[in-house]
From TrEMBL:
This is Uncharacterized protein. Residues 1-17, 129-145 have a biased composition (Low complexity). Residues 1-147 are annotated as: Disordered. It comes from Didymella pomorum.
Length: 613
């Protein structure tokens, strides 16, 4: 027995050694560190019950652990890099964590390299929520090295980051003037466009909540997301997103300052006198941004600074404080002048178009002359207008001989179209007449009378238009063909103000006074109003306002959006003479919690800013 036992014992170690060697080989294979992220693996089975086997569960747990270790390693590497950056010397004050813009790559090169990089780039695709970047102190150093020209999008950048808008918007423009509706669906769609643009522009990883990329105010009481939603709902269209969104993405200040429009808009809708608490806080933040940028020589004159000022400027228009608006306009004009004038923006038309639009509307509302700096015009867009293209036609704008887009809208009745056609002819007649009057001729004084354009045809045409206008029925008249047509009625009241202003050579605010409309009615057998002297006639601006409220403006009148602009612009201009016009409240910056600076009014603050630029 002993020999057998000893022989068996002698044979046992080799067997144990073989098992140990196999286990070591398996452990070695398992401990091989893979390069890059975990690879995708598939579980296959011939019967669904096999997915519950121990081998299948073990494989899933193993793969999950590999993925977890990979993510932990990424965090450690990221933490070590952050530690090295924090150890480096930095100027006093907190530096903002501004995300780095992703660089567009050539499509062919990107396609060839994508297989090599795989998901390893995800560690570079982290954009921190900008709340930490905008909660620092309001010193000039908190936004160092941002807002310079390297942050601005060029035309090639726009084409690279937003190719889906290039053809889509053109296709929409060919059939509809505007794609807008005041609805949650529209708001959500435009807000997602903003978030997708941010995520694409800053190359955000898939694992991060896209809404985290929205920058936040320093003031924790302000909800940037809620204000952005309201801003998108009230003002954003597909055309807006195409032209303005690339500029907004160039700096967090621009996105945040745009909420001034939404906040002041909500104040107007809620009939708040002056500024609400939210609006005051938003303006405080925006003015702080402007002050910081003016304090930095690298950002004083860049595009982002001008855009932030324009947002504040546009937000003040709801209050219609003429003094504040004119101060803003002079500040914008000074900044444009320091940049070299309007012509220097030829490669950034979207920005200068918005700047000029804000200033022009300020002049319209205030009934003031245009500043000399802003009279310089941009080179005209050479793109030809096709016969079928949908345009925002109105009595103020009709590049074709007749209206083409307006008749396609269901709101436009025959009576409305005839009325608008008369107003278009009146506009062309007035412009042509005044152009001739302003021509300068190098001739003798004897020939001046001979070359003066005759006024008989001009006066006769205006008289004919006035006569037709005075005979038009009101939508309040029961049984008429236009009864209850409030779009027609809004156009009729606007045409009355418009024609009176041109015929009498008076501002719109004067033409809207019912006492002046008597002169228009006196030349016709029957007037629009009753002939009772004791009848108190309402101000036409008030009448127009009440009529507009009866129309559906939730979609901006679709293909008649240009007409709605014409109506709204005249109503805003003529409103200043209405007895119901509220007295504007001047923004007193002294009551705003701006640290380390004594109270000053808007004009003083703008003087300080103008001195800086």
């Amino acid at each position: 027995m002993a020999p057998e036992s000893s022989s068996a014992a002698a044979e046992a170690p080799p067997a144990s050694s073989n098992v140990t060697d196999q286990s070591k080989e398996k452990l070695k294979r398992r401990r091989v560190k893979r390069e890059g992220p975990p690879q995708l693996q598939f579980l296959t089975a011939t019967d669904p019950s096999q997915f519950k086997d121990e081998d299948a569960k073990k494989s899933v747990r193993s793969q999950a652990m590999i993925h977890w270790r990979h993510e932990e390693d990424k965090k450690k590497r990221k933490g070590s890099r952050k530690h090295v950056e924090e150890a480096a010397p930095a100027p006093p004050g907190r530096r903002s964590s501004i995300p780095t813009r992703a660089k567009p790559q050539d499509s062919a090169h990107s396609q060839s390299e994508s297989s090599k990089r795989g998901d390893a780039q995800s560690q570079h695709r982290v954009l921190r929520a900008a709340s930490s970047s905008l909660t620092s102190d309001s010193d000039a150093s908190s936004f160092t090295d941002v807002g310079s020209s390297t942050w601005q999008l060029t035309a090639s950048d726009t084409a690279s980051y937003f190719p889906r808008w290039q053809n889509k918007t053109r296709a929409v423009a060919e059939k509809d003037v505007i794609e807008y509706e005041a609805s949650e669906r529209h708001e959500e769609r435009q807000l997602r466009s903003l978030v997708v643009g941010l995520a694409s522009f800053y190359d955000v990883g898939r694992t991060q909540d896209p809404f985290d990329v929205l920058p936040q105010f320093r003031n924790p009481q302000l909800d940037a997301l809620n204000l952005s939603r309201n801003c998108m709902r009230a003002f954003a269209t597909d055309a807006t997103m195409k032209k303005w969104l690339p500029l907004m993405l160039s700096h967090p200040h621009i996105i945040l300052s745009s909420t001034v429009l939404a906040s002041t808009w909500l104040d107007m809708q809620n009939k708040v006198s002056g500024d609400s608490t939210t609006t005051a806080m938003v303006k405080t933040e925006t003015i702080g941004m402007i002050r910081e940028r003016f304090a930095n020589s690298n950002t004083q004159l860049d595009d982002a600074t001008l855009i932030i000022i324009l947002h504040l400027f546009a937000g003040e228009m709801w209050v219609c404080n003429e003094q504040a608006l004119r101060v803003h306009e002079r500040g914008v004009a000074a900044l444009i002048s320091r940049r070299g004038g309007v012509s220097t923006f030829v490669h950034n038309r979207a920005l200068v178009e918005v700047a000029l639009a804000c200033c022009y509307h300020c002049d319209i509302f205030c009934e003031a002359e245009m500043l000399q700096t802003l009279r310089e015009s941009l080179p005209a867009d050479s793109a030809p207008v096709s016969a079928e293209e949908a345009l925002p036609e109105s009595p103020l704008y009709c590049p074709r001989d007749t209206f083409v887009t307006i008749p396609e809208d269901a709101r436009c009745s025959t009576s409305t179209l005839d009325l608008l056609s008369d107003m278009k002819d009146l506009t062309n007649l007035f412009v042509a007449h005044n152009t001739k009057l302003n021509q300068v001729h190098d001739i003798d004084a004897v020939d001046i009378e001979r070359l003066s354009p005759p006024d008989e045809a001009y006066e006769a045409t205006i008289c004919a238009i006035r006569t037709r206008l005075a005979h038009l029925p009101s939508a309040h008249t029961p049984g008429s063909s236009v009864s209850g047509d409030w779009v027609y009625e809004a156009c009729r009241i606007t045409a009355t103000i418009y024609t009176t202003a041109i015929a009498m050579g008076v501002p719109f605010s004067v033409a809207a006074d019912p006492n002046y409309t008597k002169l228009l009615e006196s030349s016709t057998p029957s007037g629009t109003w009753e002939s009772d002297e004791h009848f108190i006639k309402p101000h036409l601006a008030e009448t127009l306002h009440e009529t507009l409220k009866r129309t559906d403006t939730s979609n901006l009148w679709k293909n008649m959006s240009g007409v709605l602009y014409w109506v709204g612009a005249e109503r805003a201009t003529s409103w200043s003479s209405s007895p119901e016009c509220p007295q504007p409240v001047v923004l007193d910056l002294g009551r705003l919690p701006v640290p380390a600076e004594p109270p000053r009014r808007m004009s003083t603050r703008w003087k300080e800013m103008s001195d800086l630029i």
